[in-house]
């Protein structure tokens, strides 16, 4: 089986899950969308659940790559906060189907099979952010806090707007709130005497 057949099945799975949800999706519908035979599907994936897990890891990898790209070249504290929030918002809007899958459709009950791989990917993202953040904490440019607290203060508020956008509860592009989200994150993450007057 070629990589392109697997990629076609993943893309078809994403489209079908996005349209009807995981529960209502069928292997037959995914195969039809990918124009793949039954044998090709089961050669690539043992089940719909296995395809869903592989798709989750693929989408997560794309999201993490977009976030980490914001830290190259290495920014100062405020630039980094700005770039990371904008990278999150941009990815959600420009990769809406993938973002819906990652944040709205994926389910923990079928994610157990990929939990170790997910932890490894999350650790790589965390390491990338920490390589930028740790020196800034050490020199007093960012407040000391756990990595989990840092990410929650950085991305958490933006994610509220993104979830409303992805679910259709709010049609407004969440990027319109970027400046305010960034200003709030800077106040939450930087010592008061280090904040640049805007």
Automatic annotation (TrEMBL):
GO terms, molecular function: DNA-binding transcription factor activity; transcription cis-regulatory region binding
Organism: Bradyrhizobium frederickii
HTH tetR-type domain residues: 3-63
Top-level taxon: Bacteria
Residue ranges: DNA binding: 26-45
Signal peptide (from-to): none
SUPFAM superfamilies in alphabetical order: Homeodomain-like, Tetracyclin repressor-like, C-terminal domain
Name the record gives this protein: TetR/AcrR family transcriptional regulator
